[in-house]
Write a structure and sequence with these properties.
By secondary structure, the protein is of the alpha+beta class. It is about 35% helix and about 20% strand. The longest helix is centred in the C-terminal third of the chain and has 26 residues, at about 375-400.
Length: about 525
């Protein structure tokens, strides 16, 4: 018996994952292919766009085969992907550069060039400061490889490139959807257009920038060749898709103002959903990006490796013997930390072991402060958990400064860290906002499948898809009695951050002291 399915594909840093879902959101098949990161020299990290396209085709084909679906059972597919990198494509729609990854730091000099030349103009127009993202990368290709740059017809991201290949699109059909614009360096994100003044400031031909489309727009249909590679029917519609972060927020049901999302994974990502474009020029902490849901915005920041700190603590500090990785498990650590009654004398942990991302303090490193001899493994571990929540408190304060009347409804937690009841409780108390768990939903490919359902006309809008597909479970309510405690802890945490940032070595200072 024929059924209606939709496909979501996520082209991530670690690999490509596809999910095949029913029109009601039930996952019937999943598939994964690992990525192949190429590091030719320090700071030069790329991927082969052909590998990304092959992984897209293979995961789609595997999902269809696992589910026993017919080629015409798939109503639509959408692809999300890594957001801050670029692929230069030629007039034929094929790549002339590798995927210049968001991890690639060769464009660093042009971050300063953009800031020095136009000040806050990029931040105020795009919603995000120049970083290792599209603008500096495009200028790097223009300056360092002018011969290659001359062959580039347009710049796109992995999700768009894979969609173009599936549909046989040319360079004239190159597109970028609105959820990526904050990383572009050249967009008027609020208007959904390119900023010609910024292009002129950097002598960039706007013709090398792709067309801007909505995430739900059908950009093409599967070709005969792509049908052979994927098992899809020729003519299957392909939606523009969105960025992987936007897809993850959608999959958590963040389709109304006031819904916060905490992605408690390897990185600790926090986002607030609002109905206004509010660049954070005051604290330079939050990026502001368009949501998949029309009229909504995500204000977000993250701790690089915030979740990784927990695994590091378990493997090193909590191990009785060096290398005895399983001596202390997370259940035992949570039990030790839960038994501790919170006090102002507790230690603080600085979670920026790999440097602080927002606001930028790249040379800052991790630390414990306020230690005493009475502190135990449980105190230290609780401080690691609390640090993420205190950092989120800084993000929430940044939103309050942008909009003092903003109302926070709830914090939806997804990722492996959502399993920790203690961590959720600390986050609820710091934010003074209820923490809610995701039942069904979560993850980039699921968000892309939701978008495909909307693009296929299976729902009137993405809010309707979210209402049908995403379920939540009770988490924990904040304890009002802890509000003053964590306000005080938060102020002290910020003072330690400022002091340690000021004491961190400059870019060359650390290297000189090592010689």
């Amino acid at each position: 018996m024929s059924r209606t399915y939709v496909l979501g594909v996520d082209i991530g840093t670690q690999g490509t994952k596809a999910v095949l879902c029913t029109e009601r959101g039930d996952v019937v098949a999943e598939a994964f292919r690992a990525s192949r990161l190429i590091e030719t020299e320090p700071g030069a990290i790329t991927e082969d766009p052909d590998d990304q396209f092959t992984a897209t085709c293979e995961t789609i084909a595997e999902c269809i085969k696992k589910a026993g679906a017919g080629p015409r059972d798939v109503a639509c597919l959408a692809i999300d992907g890594q957001m801050a990198g670029v692929i230069g494509i030629g007039a034929d729609g094929r790549h002339v550069t590798p995927y210049d990854s968001w991890l690639d730091t060769r464009c660093g000099r042009f971050i300063e060039v953009m800031t020095d030349r136009v000040g806050d103009a990029v931040l105020m127009s795009t919603g995000n400061e120049p970083s290792f993202n599209h603008g500096p990368k495009i200028l790097w290709w223009k300056s360092e490889h002018p011969d290659v740059f001359a062959r580039i017809h347009s710049f796109v991201q992995p999700g768009a490139y894979a969609a173009m290949r599936l549909c046989g699109l040319s360079g004239n059909d190159a597109f970028i959807d609105t959820t990526y614009l904050h990383f572009s360096g050249f967009a008027d994100t609020a208007a959904g257009t390119w900023n010609e003044e910024l292009c002129r400031a950097f002598e960039l031909d706007p013709g090398k920038l792709p067309s801007i489309v909505g995430p739900e727009e059908i950009v093409g249909r599967v070709t005969t060749e792509a049908a052979r590679l994927t098992g899809l029917a020729e003519g299957t519609p392909v939606a523009a898709g969105c960025g992987d972060t936007a897809a993850s927020f959608l999959s958590c049901g963040a389709v109304e103002p006031g819904i916060c999302v905490d992605v408690a994974g390897t990185a600790s990502v926090f986002s607030v959903t609002s109905d206004g474009f509010m660049p954070d020029a005051a604290s330079r902490t939050l990026g502001c990006s368009r949501a998949v849901t029309p009229g909504l915005w995500h204000h977000y920041a993250y701790i690089n490796g915030g979740g990784m700190n927990l695994e590091w603590f378990r493997k090193t500090i909590a191990s009785v013997e060096p290398g005895a990785l399983d001596v202390a498990g997370f259940d035992g650590l949570n039990e030790l930390a839960t038994a501790i009654r919170p006090a102002q004398s507790d230690p603080f942990f600085i979670p920026h072991v790999a440097g602080r991302v927002t606001p930028a303090a790249p040379n800052l490193r991790g630390a414990w402060v306020n230690l005493s001899w009475s502190h135990t493994i449980g105190h230290l571990y609780r401080a690691v958990l609390e640090a993420v929540a205190l950092e989120y408190g800084i993000y929430l304060d940044a939103i309050r400064r942008l909009d003092p009347a903003f109302a926070f409804r709830e914090m939806r937690v997804t990722g492996g860290g959502a399993k920790s009841a203690l961590w959720n409780s600390i986050k609820a108390d710091v934010a003074q906002t209820p923490v809610t768990l995701i039942g069904t939903g979560g993850g980039g490919p699921y968000g892309s499948a939701m978008l495909a359902a909307y693009a296929a006309g299976l729902a009137a809008d993405v809010r309707e898809v979210a209402k049908t597909w995403v379920t939540t479970e009770p988490g924990v309510d904040p304890n009002p009695e802890m509000k003053s405690h964590y306000r005080s802890r938060g102020r002290r945490y910020e003072s330690f951050l400022e002091a340690l940032s000021a004491a961190s070595p400059g870019e060359n200072e650390g290297a000189e002291s090592d010689r």
